[in-house]
Amino acid sequence: MALGKSFFVKLLALRYRLLGIEQFIIDPDREYTKLCESVGGTIIKIGPSSNTYINVLDIREESIEEEQGYLATKLAKLIGFFHLIFGELNEEEKAILEEKIILCYQEKGITFDDNSLYRQKKENISSKPIFKESKDMPILEDLFEILGREEKTKKFQTKLIPFVKGSLKFFNQHTNVKMDEIFIVADVYELGEDNLKYGMYLFTEIFWDKIKKNREVKKAIYLDEVWRLIGVTSNKEVASFIYKIFKTIRKYGGSAIAITQDISDLFSLENGTYGKSILNNSSMKAFFSLEEENILLLSQYTNLSEKEKIEIKSLKRGECLMFVGEDHILAKIEAADFEKNCIM
Ligand SMILES: Nc1ncnc2c1ncn2[C@@H]1O[C@H](COP(=O)(O)OP(=O)(O)OP(=O)(O)O)[C@@H](O)[C@H]1O
Ligand SMILES: [Mg+2]
User: Fold this and answer.
1) Ligand 1 close to Cβ of residue 344 (< 6 A)
2) 220 and 327 belong to one structural domain
3) Tell me: the pLDDT tens digits for 262-272?
4) Which residue among 29, 34, 261, 317 is best mutated to probe the pocket of ligand 1, counting the most ligand atoms within 8 A of its Cβ?
């Protein structure tokens, strides 16, 4: 129901822009275009009609996570990504897949030794070693070829056909876009309903790397329709990555904003573990009008009073019940005309 969630977030992003906060927005519905143009941001579109490519197998210099090397960090992310494509994987299948991904990087000279991510230093040049570029990375086709070598991995290969030769083959390209801007909207709309999650995950990973780059810079990431990444059509690896963002982003000087319309889906994976954890780690929550059954569900995870349960039902467009720390506040989202012109 269109009650003003996105409007609220667009207004927030507009005002954050004036404060100089870097912002990265994942836009599955192609509705942040106007805002992006108003603030002079950049839209990065992936899809069949775009010639902007991003390679999911890229390892970037800022990709590293604490206590893990580059390849180990990437492996965990890729298992999540391929789990989205391949569906349920048992432990044995995960192990086989992991082995093949490792081989795929190995054939490009990338191993668990972090030095392998750097280009060979040239003699007589005493500069800092250079991190490998996009074109040094494997692409999906390389993995596809490896998966075809053995009978036991052929079923994975088959599932990759659309990504290598079919309708989603724009995933099978080296990255050709730099992401240095401070306001970026990732337009994944063209991927279509069933494939949105792949694009959303791809950009979440890239934006997360950007967020980690410089702790001194304030920034925010927006995940509209987040249920696609933590709901029942997702998986543990992806959902726990999203949760990790919400848990740790503050220490990088960032904030994460999740928007969802479907409360039941938010609590559908693993008994709601991820939805609940994200909710508990959010310092501010805004609830727009909800139907009876969703109010019941929500009251299992938050402390709604009886009065609030009634209030939340009668909220109008642009009105919400905000939880800020211990306080619960009824709020109305109001924008000045010039702000409205910037966002709609
Ligand atoms: N506070 C507000 N002031 C003025 N107009 C608003 C306000 N909130 C929402 N609108 C308008 O109402 C319409 C629906 O709002 P919005 O797109 O934000 O809904 P939503 O909750 O994100 O819906 P959906 O669930 O479909 O994503 C939009 O045209 C928007 O411009
Ligand atoms: Mg919306």
Assistant:
1) yes
2) yes
3) 888 888 888 88
4) 317
